[in-house]
Design a protein that fits this description.
By secondary structure, this protein is mainly alpha-helical. The protein has one domain. Helices cover 85% and strands 0% of the residues. It is built from three helices and no strands. The chain has helices spanning 2-70, 73-83, 97-113. The chain is rod-shaped and about 120 Å long.
Amino acid sequence: MNFLYLKLDKLYKIYFFNFILFLTVLAAICSLFFIQFKTGNLQVKLDNINEEIEYLQDEVKTLKIEWVYLTRPERLRILSDKYLNNKDIKLSQIRTMDEIQLAMKGKNRILASN
């Protein structure tokens, strides 16, 4: 009887070990499935972000081209003549940098004294 009890005890240990091993393999399979699902979702999000980056880079290129077109000197000259009503500049209106700096120093002193 004692021999039969030892055999059953070993048999239960083997069953218990197999059951734990089965649960471990099942948990690993479920974990891998969820990890694969999550990485798939992250890949889709990454693809969407990359598409948005490409779209925005194209927009920036387009805006730079428009800026270059809108700030052409010929166009600015035409617009300034049309809207600013500029008169011809006289030579007496042109100042040197030294004269401008002297004028600015005088204004700074007045502002500092107030």
